[in-house]
Design brief:
- By secondary structure, the protein is mostly beta strands.
- 0% of the residues lie in helices and 36% in strands.
- The chain has strands spanning 3-9, 45-46, 57-58, 69-79, 89-95, 98-103, 106-111, 123-127, 132-141, 150-156, 166-168.
Length: 181
């Protein structure tokens, strides 16, 4: 389950640009902030869990325009000590557009390739986890050519066995430092 924020215009280096919830004085946990521009209402929206599948989350259901724009997807992953969540975990990410992966406010992986279809995982990151809430965020940027507009995140153990995590599109309660002033 994701919260989604976009579209942001891609001004050339959009995948690396810190804007929206990463901008000065902003935070992923503040879901009431508006980042509108032109005629586009850019506010956090929560995705429907029924729209996500093994084929990924279809961005076209939530974002318009998608061509030459960037979108943030974020979820609060809660890891419970009682649930004996294995540590470390491996996060696998697939995306048709450029993608930057953020864990608890820190960039952990980036791919600047644009693919027309979502087929296989493009990025994987090993994460040492501690109990409690964590931010998993993606910034996805689309090119001028049409693509499937899909994104997928999944977690496994280091030996690639599937594992379950609890996630929420409600980002409130995350304690991350705000972006630089």
């Amino acid at each position: 389950s994701f919260a989604i924020l976009g579209p942001f215009p891609d001004k050339g280096d959009g995948i690396r640009e810190k804007e929206g919830p990463e901008g000065p004085g902003q935070s992923f946990a503040d879901m009431s902030t508006k980042h509108s521009w032109g005629v586009y209402d850019v506010t956090w929206r929560r995705t429907l869990s029924a729209s996500a599948s093994a084929r990924g989350l279809p961005l076209d259901l939530y974002i318009h325009p998608r061509s030459e724009t960037c979108t943030y997807l974020a979820t609060k992953v809660v890891l419970s000590a009682a649930a004996k969540t294995p540590s470390p975990l491996v996060m696998h990410v697939a995306s048709t557009g450029k993608v930057r992966v953020i864990w608890d406010g820190t960039d952990i992986a980036i791919s600047e390739d644009v693919h027309p279809r979502l087929v296989v995982d493009r990025l994987a990151a090993r994460i040492d986890v501690s109990p409690g809430p964590h931010l998993v965020a993606l910034k996805v940027c689309s090119g001028s050519l049409q693509d499937e507009g899909r994104v997928r995140v999944r977690f496994t153990t280091p030996d690639r066995k599937p594992t379950t995590v609890t996630s929420s599109s409600n980002l409130t309660g995350l304690h991350l430092p705000p972006g630089p002033p």
